[in-house]
């Protein structure tokens, strides 16, 4: 089974969030179950360096009048197809926004080209490798299923699109349709039109043979107006083709027993190593060295999705309970400012690192007692999975993948010895405060906390079950006639 991933991010090469983690880890897990995955990714600056050759580069048809090529290569355990089009992708930094913080004005061209080249590769343009299935990730690859479905040459590839986050839809003005070579007949409600604009994600949802999202709960939520962000109708219509497959994590990259970015390695049987990481984290961030203070961490984009405005409101309560907070994140200017102010106002108790720092994110997971994720919505969430693996108990909102991966420490779960964290609902200040209380109470009960940590660290968070689910979906798709509804 040959599968072409199309994505705009891939860890460890280029990452702004969980999409990259998934695209970097899932192909390896699929490889282990006999699926041959190649990842089509833009050749952002530096990506071609250090690439181990994996066949000849092939010129594509001109992209917006410029020459481009696809460079096959191996890196970081992945087989990559890098789209080398310097005019489109030769820009350092964040893949979507320029230095002024605004989206690149030609993003429709950049990711339209990525999608078009994906569809072109599906047509057998790579010598000796024609994918059975094209797997598009998020809006950046959303036009690929449309190009495939609308193309006159009937290709043998089937397509699937994964929704990692419906909040990002890739909407562009109607006039881009001509540049993108999309047929005017598709500019209708049952096509890629979305309230008068061209919708990249909508195109994927309409034209892909199957749709997946990253947790079963989010799959259900997506069909409702509260979570569907205007696309709930389209998704509800395609309910029969939609599955929720939970994300996993890369167990090698995230392993407290061998993580090079943490102070002391540890595992379930030597949790004293975790205490040393706590001391190291407190030292590194200028927090008071205090083993008895419950240390909560946050590693997150700072956006409304993540509910961190509520955490700011709950902070006095957290501190009153004797807790400490370590936050690593970047995003909305208001939130950055408010958290920086909270750190200044509470030296030794609140530490805030603004920016993106992969090694520090590992030390935070190793050193904190608990990780806070008060999201308003969360398609899957990966930081709670890292938390479970590192014995850093997740305190999470009951939504999306957070609901599917954390077992709340209610009385019954404590008695049954199955709790791994704390959930709260709805995502409100009082519910969050309640959850913080429960976490602080549990932290004070050393036996209970240790038991939960050990259980959390045993909770299966790898990719094997979900990779098998994707492999089964690809098999089903490859065996189905064109246009059939899967599963
Ligand atoms: P999302 O994709 O919505 O941002 P996820 O929980 O799925 O949320 O994934 C976020 C990923 O990005 C995780 O790997 C997390 O560790 C990482 N991350 C988020 N913010 C930072 C940061 N400031 N520094 C380092 N890593 C970060
Ligand atoms: C998105 C979601 C996040 C998910 C990630 C990977 O960025 O916000 O919940 O874990 O994609 O699928």
**Oligomerization state:** single chain
On the 0 to 100 scale, the average pLDDT is 96
- What bound compounds does this protein have? adenosine-5'-diphosphate, alpha-D-glucopyranose
**Weakly predicted, low-confidence segments:** none
Task: Summarize the structure in words.
The chain is α/β, with parallel strands linked by helices and 487 residues long. 38% of the residues lie in helices and 18% in strands. It has helices spanning 18-32, 86-89, 107-125, 143-150, 176-179, 200-207, 216-221, 225-228, 232-237, 272-285, 308-320, 333-345, 358-367, 383-389, 400-405, 411-415, 429-444, 446-458, 464-479, and strands spanning 2-6, 36-42, 52-53, 58-59, 69-75, 78-84, 133-137, 158-163, 171-172, 193-194, 197-199, 210-213, 242-244, 295-302, 324-331, 350-354, 370-373, 393-397, 422-424. Strands 1, 2, 3, 4, 5, 6, 7, 8, 12 and 13 form a ten-stranded mixed sheet that branches. Strands 16-15-14-17-18-19 form a six-stranded parallel sheet, sandwiched between helices. α11 (308-320) crosses α17 (429-444). The radius of gyration is 23 Å and the shape is globular. It binds adenosine-5'-diphosphate and alpha-D-glucopyranose (GLC). Alpha-D-glucopyranose is lined by residues 17-19, 22, 164-165, 214, 247, 378-382, 401.
């Amino acid at each position: 089974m040959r599968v072409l991933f199309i994505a705009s991010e891939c860890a460890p090469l280029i990452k702004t969030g969980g999409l990259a983690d998934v695209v970097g880890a899932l192909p390896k897990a699929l490889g282990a179950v006999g699926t041959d995955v190649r990842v089509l990714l833009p050749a952002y600056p530096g990506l071609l360096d250090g690439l181990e050759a994996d066949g000849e580069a092939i010129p594509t048809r001109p992209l917006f009048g410029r020459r481009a090529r696809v460079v096959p290569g191996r890196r970081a355990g992945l087989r990559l197809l890098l789209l080398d089009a310097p005019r489109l992708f030769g820009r350092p930094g964040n893949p979507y926004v320029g230095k002024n913080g605004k989206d690149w004005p030609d993003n429709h061209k950049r990711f339209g080209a990525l999608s078009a080249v994906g569809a072109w590769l599906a047509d057998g343009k790579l010598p000796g490798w024609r994918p059975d299935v094209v797997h598009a990730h998020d809006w950046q690859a959303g036009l690929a299923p449309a190009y495939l479905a609308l193309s006159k040459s009937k290709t043998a590839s089937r397509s699937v699109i994964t929704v990692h986050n419906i909040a990002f839809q890739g909407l562009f003005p109607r006039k881009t349709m001509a540049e993108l070579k999309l047929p005017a007949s598709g500019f209708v409600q049952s096509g890629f039109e979305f309230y008068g604009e061209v919708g990249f994600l909508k195109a994927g949802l309409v034209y892909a043979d199957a749709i997946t999202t990253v947790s079963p709960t989010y799959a259900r939520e997506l069909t409702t107006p509260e979570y569907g962000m205007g696309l709930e109708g389209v998704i509800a219509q395609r309910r029969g083709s939609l599955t929720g497959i939970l994300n996993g994590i890369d167990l090698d990259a995230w392993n407290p027993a061998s993580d090079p970015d943490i102070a002391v390695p540890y595992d379930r049987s030597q949790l004293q190593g975790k205490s040393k990481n706590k001391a190291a984290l407190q030292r590194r961030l200028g927090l008071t060295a205090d083993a008895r203070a419950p240390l909560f961490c946050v590693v997150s984009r700072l956006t409304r999705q993540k509910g961190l405005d509520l955490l700011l409101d709950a902070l006095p309560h957290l501190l009153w309970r004797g807790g400490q907070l370590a936050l690593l994140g970047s995003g909305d200017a208001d939130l950055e400012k408010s958290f920086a102010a909270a750190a200044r106002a509470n030296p030794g108790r609140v530490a805030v690192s603004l920016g993106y720092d992969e090694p520090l994110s590992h030390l935070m997971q190793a050193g904190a007692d608990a990780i806070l994720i008060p999201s308003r919505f969360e398609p899957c969430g990966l930081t709670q999975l890292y938390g479970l693996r590192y014995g850093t108990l997740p305190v999470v909102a009951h939504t999306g993948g957070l609901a599917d991966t954390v077992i709340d420490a209610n009385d019954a779960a404590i008695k049954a010895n199955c709790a791994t964290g704390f959930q709260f609902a709805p995502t409100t200040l009082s519910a969050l405060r309640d959850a913080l209380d429960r976490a602080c109470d549990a932290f004070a009960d050393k036996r209970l906390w240790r038991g939960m940590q050990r259980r959390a660290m045993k909770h299966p968070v790898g990719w094997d079950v979900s990779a098998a689910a994707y492999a089964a979906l690809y098999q089903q798709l490859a065996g189905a006639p064109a246009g059939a509804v899967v599963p």
